[in-house]
Amino acid sequence: MPINQFEEELRRTARFDTHQSASDPLGAALVEINAHPTYNQSRLLTRVLHALADHEGDFRRAEIAGLDIPTVKLVLALLDAERAGTITRDAWLKALAAADKVTGG
């Protein structure tokens, strides 16, 4: 499914959760990826970074089931930041390069 449908499914999954979103979602994503580079969640976060930096990407509904709620919230915060334009293109690309380096992507 395209990233916009993936976002809709993520929002449905997180709609009853009360956890706060990260104030710096890009930094929080990199912390998570660096802490656990071989975890499926980290690999999916890296794919999300690619999708947001490249403005394209495909995901499966089943991938959402593998995410814990804090990571769902983190992905939603990344999507919101990209939409709002609060993160520069250069910052996205630097974060993506750092994530790829750690995950081997």
Task: Describe the fold and architecture.
With 105 residues, this protein is mainly alpha-helical. The protein has one domain. 70% of the residues lie in helices and 0% in strands. The chain has six helices and no strands. Helix 1 crosses helix 5, helix 2 packs antiparallel against helix 3 and helix 3 runs parallel beside helix 5. The radius of gyration is 12 Å and the shape is globular. The mean pLDDT is 89.
Looking at this protein, list some descriptive labels.
6 helices; globular; 105 residues; 70% helix; mainly alpha
Biggest beta-sheet profile:
none
Number of alpha- plus pi-helical segments: 6
Distance between the termini: 21 Å
Average residue-wise pLDDT:
89
Count of distinct strands: 0
What structural class should be given to the helix and strand makeup? mainly alpha
Rg, nearest Å: 12 Å
Overall tally of structural domains: 1
The percent of residues in helical segments reads: over 70%
What is the global morphology? globular
Helix and strand succession? HHHHHH
In terms of DSSP E residues, the strand content is under 5%
Low-confidence residue ranges: none
